[in-house]
Amino acid sequence: MRVRINIYVVRELCDTSDYAIDIVLGQRIKKKTSYTIYYDSRTLNNAQRNYYTIEKELLDVVFALENFYLIYLVLKLLFTLIMQLFVI
Fold it and tell me: Strand order in 9-16's β-sheet?
């Protein structure tokens, strides 16, 4: 029995400017078409605007992990269940 599973890569993109943080959870199919699964942004307060660039980027990563943590858990659970079905 031959089973073909198409697994598409889900990527997280972060962008930080001097005033806002943007995060995108997207999926690229066949290296041509990109789809946005989830998008979120927020503005930085006065104290956060004074952060160094590396601190803003780390704040962006923390913001992304807070938003995408549940999505990653669900995807990991589904992937594990699918793989267990086909390994047997």
Answer: 9-16, 20-29, 33-43
User: What are the tens digits of pLDDT across the range 17-39?
Assistant: 888 888 888 877 777 777 887 88
Cα–Cα dist 13/57, whole Å: 11
- Provide the token pair at 50: 């004074």
Q: Which CATH architecture has domain 9-87?
A: Roll (3.10)
The letter for the amino acid at 17 is S
Please count the other Cβ atoms lying within 10 Å of the Cβ belonging to residue 44.
17
The first and second tokens of residue 45, run together, are 């307060």
Domain boundaries, the chain: 9-87
pTM value? 0.63
> What whole-number distance in Å separates Cα of residue 5 and Cα of residue 40?
30
